[in-house]
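[audit] Reproducing an earlier prediction to check determinism. Same input, same settings, fresh worker. If the tokens differ from the archived copy the diff job will pick it up downstream; this log only records the rerun itself.
[audit] input (319 residues):
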Amino acid sequence: MKTITLGQTGIEVTQMCVGTLTLGRLQANVPAEQGAAAIRRAIDLGANFIDTAQAYATYPHVAHAIRGVEKDLVIASKSKATNYEEMEKAIYECRKALRREVVDIFYLHMIADEQDLNSRSWALKCIMDFKEVGAVRAVAASTHTNAGLQAIADCPEIQVIMPCINRKGLGITDGTIDECLQIARVCRERGKSIVAMKPLGGGHLRADAAAAINWVRALPEVDCLAVGMLTPQEAEMNVRIFNDEPVPPDVAAAVSTQPKQLIIYDTCEGCGRCVARCHQHALEQKKGRTPQKPVVDQAKCILCGYCADACPHFSIRII
């Protein structure tokens, strides 16, 4: 598989990054051993780059998958921590859970805009301090907004950026894909590296996964792509796409029969927090329902799962 060096970090990664959001509590919530099978299949087929996050709760899946792997792996994680102490705990948690002294890349998770980035200045300082002592190799930030991407572009300390990039702009909550790519070009000019997330638009573009992935791969602004995978068959399909190889019919058939949609369980108490969290406006509380369990507009939903993180009763799944 093609490898690249992330900007000025010196970190060499495969062009395909194994995304783990799909495995954790925000989405399918599969057991660690089951999720690890998908990660391990991708590793065995050549991938060396794995993306996780504190919010995903997929550290057990990753830890199980990398156990006994002899080749060098690059692990990236994220935290929504807003201050120094929270971020310090988050980095220690990651290191302990994955049994790694060094976390290769650590992100400020989901920067909304300049104000949000400024409010997390001490969390950023914490990541930089861990980098100074060698416990983190690269400072990073992720975002779902063009305003957040612009703020990160203007922050010299951040070396790696993870924005939403796909051919339909799904997941970008405040603008277009063209606007996103304009800012991404500025980031590259400033020596930053771009790891594109949601190349399949949260699953909405997976009917022609190869075309969607290759559209992003061809962008000069993008270094590599984080692609979520739930099963070993999905892992094999993705690896073959990145290797420009045909996908075997049995693998394609196994993947195509895995439908995904957002489900809100009857344990929902209608608090509305998920509705407020959804930037895609895919959730609506209908008047006259008691409790006012939100209704999902599957056409608008990008299957990001962040609404689930807002639910106090964990009543939301993507399955």
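[audit] rerun output stored. Observation attached for the diff report: The first helix runs from residue 32 to 44.
[audit] end
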